[in-house]
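hey m, so remember when u said the tokens were messed up on ur end? i reran from scratch. heres the input so u can diff it against urs
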Amino acid sequence: MQANKKQIGLHAQDMEANIGLVSAHVTGRLNGLVAQIKVRQVYKNWSDDNVECVYTFPLGWQSVLLGMRVELNGKSMTGTVKPKKVAEAQYEEAISSGDLPVMLERSGKDLYTANIGNIQTGDEVVIELDYAQILKAEDGAIRFSLPTTIAPRYGDASAAGLKLHQQAEANPQAEHRLFLNLELSENLSQGTVYSPSHEIQLSPQGNQCSLKLEGAAWLDRDFVLVIDRLGDMNFAVAAHDSARPGEAKVLTGGVYRPTGYEKQHPISIKVLVDCSGSMQGDSIEQAKDCLNWLFGQLNNTDQVSFTRFGSSVHHDHSELKPCTLIYRQLLKASSRRLNADLGGTEIDDALKEVIAIQSGSPEESKNAVILLITDGEVWNIEEIIATVRASGQRIYAVGVGSAPSESLLKDMADVTGGASEMVTPRESMQKAVERLLIQIRQTQAIEQEVTCKAPIVWQSKSKGHAAAGSSLMSWTQINTQGSPLDELKVVQTVYPNGEPTPCPVIWDESLDLSRIAAALRLNDLTKAKERERLAVEYQLVTSETNLILVHERAENEKADDLPELHQVRPMLAAGWSGNGAIAYSRKAPSLQVMRTGCDNVPFIAESRIDMSMSVPAMWRSNRSHSAARVDGMANAGMDDIEIPAFLRKQESSSDSKPVKTFVQKFKDIVSTPNKQPQSTHTVKKPQGTSDELKAILASKTITNNPVHELLSSFNQVALTHTRFRSALAACLRTNQANYMEWLITKHMKAAGSGAPIWAIFISWAAENLSVELDRHAERILRDFLSPIDSDLQQAIYAELSELKQEAAV
């Protein structure tokens, strides 16, 4: 098959553009502090195979997914949010029946996965996602960020809750286009509009304006838009509740302007800098320059400690000491020596050690803050949030790079009462840290109160700390029955020393405030059932719910076989781990090719190339036919490549050849089920006992447990197989399986072969040994077990359960 006919994935609707497999058309409107965004994705299958396409993508911090519309070959459908288990069962049922299901699930913190099953040859599936995000006006400026890719993250994605099919490694050679058009409301159009990440073109339209990207753009860096020089935005906007008649949601906003504060308040700062491999290039250089400036701004009354981390933690200055002239020089010298050479990104361990640093008195230690500089590319987000929440110390975070983990850094700042700044490679980190330094000196405890004449049903929690210029937001759910809505006002008061500020309510039904507020309200609920009920009521995609729709095909159009999984691999974030430099002039940047792995050891190939800012950071060139053939063989897997005879492992020169064991023979049978193994002599079948299997079932440890290893391997290989026999054969090549000899020998005659016994055993082990099977593993297992005699399945189930009980005794 020709290479250009073997394309499966996402592509732009604009077919005139020279695009790759994945692109996105983004349109939207920034209406005050509410961003309303639509993302259009087009999936098409040019191959001869039935395909399931899976794409995991990010959304902005605290974004709320509002809806999904799907077109299949011109027919439009709308999805419905259902409990997760119900939606997954409906999706698998549609896969089995040959229909085309589309399911959207939340796979992580601000991460979502689109699953499109049974995309047949020539099918074009268009997905439109609608989401909203509440923006913040900090000291007269609004920053809107559109994440486009997931940079490689340190740690275990599975431990963070992502299933195997939701995990896709970045592809350094991918070329995925971004198309974007945004409209700005009248009040935002009056500000200074610019993008530190992309070239944009502004077009005035009366009192409003719109913008689009100028030149080619790619899904390898976040799109960032800054609107500066805005006045204080004090407002109250409301919309009726779509799910609860007689109620409405009110969003109140303002800017904290205290009447007086101490400008030079002494501070205690614990500086923590990420020196892991992912910080190579622009990020570590920005950190060096910024810290050299920061240490020069501190005075003798301020206290500082300095720590860097990667796989390990290094305290260059482990105590909080006054910033004398000599100490400042020592700190500057330490900052100039920074290198991104400490391996992985163990943020949690580093935070715990820095939190433990004590000052002279308990009160000073309590008031100490942590200034964290990192790209935040880790998977254990929930553990880190729990650590900083329990610490009682405020976190001021600086996120660096072209695609930093905004969710982690903003969440850390939010739960501790601190603040965060995101810095692109073309922005000044010094200005970002200067803004944070002002906030650190001026932050004080506050209490925000919002009152209204209408009865209040629910209200969001007040922000505990704020500095001059900080944005204050509050959500209020009111009962509108019997209340005069035309003259409704809310009164906002900030203590201490706050004056009541009345604000008339503006009604805007185009803003889906009820669902946005419900999504934020979910954070206050701890019981899964309550979260599920509220999510279904307001049609929100959460960890307890999925969005699902099924296109029922005509009988003659249904898929005949299970689909092959195709995971869309995102582009590698520009500048990640030194892959390209995008901060300065692009006339002659140095290209670094990184060997990605746990060791973060770079393999550097210097090259001088001419790149504009819009070109992806990794060098891309026209591929040769030979290179395409090599890629095809690599994607097919080594099992599909014929190994030359001179590279094959030779038989031993010894006259005596080892006799294959029973399990080895069975592996051969499973690998070629229709071909009987040839033998020149008869080997007596070994007659094992149940003792070995019983001993394994008695083990309560997961580490080095062969059954757990087998099921984990089965989960992995199921992603690349659509038949149980081939998946089982791949597992048995790498997993010890002698413990099954007795069970297979006993039931071989009734089962006809060993494969049904293995299938029943895997199914029983998944249910009884607390090993969760991935969706694709369950699918091929269920498909294989469906024609197997139910009496045989029940007999083996009963026998295994009896063995487990005996083992427990």
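this time it looks ok to me. The two ends are 59 Å apart (CA to CA). if urs says something different then somethings off w ur setup not the seq
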